[in-house]
């Protein structure tokens, strides 16, 4: 298994047991390592034979740290969209398409994203007025789907203060109840 660490001036040799630990033990802090340093560490771990990973606790601790970094990154992306692009529906569509697991928590049952921007019918004989839903989820039940449409802030505000539907093409599954 060859190393994927990019370096043209490598001297062919095998790292001996304890050498990496001795080298890393010389440092008190890793706060100033670069992206290239992290890439090199990632390459070492990627090239490491799985038989060398003997402690599950090491893997779990590393995964927990990576999960925190991942969640912080998603939160930062979300906050940036909220601040800079609160009304740009396409950007929100892309964000949630990339992080569909965040939407799956909206449902009381397990769902899997089937398609983003899914056509769900409604066309006339002239091939007009088709309906698109932002996200189409499949549930664990046979032929059962969950449809999800997103609203941007202006759409929410308009629907709160008027009796108009937030989207003019909204279709009701049943007649409005009297009362």
Q: Beta fraction of the residues?
A: 5-15%
Helix/strand/pairing category: alpha+beta
Strand segment tally: 3
- What kind of sheet is the major sheet? 3 strands, antiparallel
The termini sit apart by: 73 Å
- The mean pLDDT is 78
Task: Enumerate how many helices there are, as a single number.
Answer: 6
Unreliable stretches (pLDDT < 50, length at least 5) are: none
Rounded Rg? 25 Å
Global shape? elongated
Order of helices and strands: HHHHHEEEH
- Residues in helix, %: 25-40%
Q: Which secondary structure elements does this structure contain, and how are they paired or packed?
A:
Elements: H1 19-24, H2 35-47, H3 56-84, H4 89-98, H5 101-104, E1 111-119, E2 132-139, E3 145-148, H6 153-161
Antiparallel strand pairs: 1-2, 2-3
Can you characterise this structure?
- The structure is a single chain.
- The chain is of the alpha+beta class.
- Among the domains are: 32-84; 100-161, no CATH class.
- The protein is 40% helix and 12% strand.
- The chain has 6 helices and 3 strands; from the N terminus they run αααααβββα.
- It has helices at 19-24, 35-47, 56-84, 89-98, 101-104, 153-161; strands at residues 111-119, 132-139, 145-148.
- It has a 3-stranded antiparallel β-sheet with strand order 1-2-3, with no helix packed on it.
- Strand 2 and strand 3 form a beta hairpin.
- The longest helix is centred in the middle third of the chain and has 29 residues, at 56-84.
- 2% of the residues are buried.
- The model has no long low-confidence stretch (mean pLDDT 78).
């Amino acid at each position: 298994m060859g190393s994927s660490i990019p370096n043209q001036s490598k001297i062919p040799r095998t790292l001996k047991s304890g050498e990496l630990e001795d080298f890393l033990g010389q440092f008190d802090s890793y706060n100033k390592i670069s992206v290239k340093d992290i890439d090199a560490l990632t390459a070492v771990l990627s090239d490491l034979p799985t038989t060398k990973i003997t402690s599950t606790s090491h893997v779990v601790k590393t995964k927990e740290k990576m999960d925190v970094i991942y969640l912080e990154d998603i939160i930062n992306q979300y906050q940036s969209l909220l601040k800079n692009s609160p009304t740009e529906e396409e950007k929100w569509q892309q964000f949630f398409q990339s992080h569909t697991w965040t939407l799956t928590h909206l449902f009381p049952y397990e769902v899997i994203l089937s398609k983003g921007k899914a056509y769900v019918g409604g066309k006339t004989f002239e091939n007009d007025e088709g309906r698109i839903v932002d996200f189409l989820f499949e549930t664990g039940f046979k032929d059962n789907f969950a449809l999800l449409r997103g609203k941007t802030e202006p759409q929410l505000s308009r629907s709160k203060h008027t009796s108009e539907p937030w989207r003019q093409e909204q279709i009701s599954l049943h007649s409005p109840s009297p009362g």
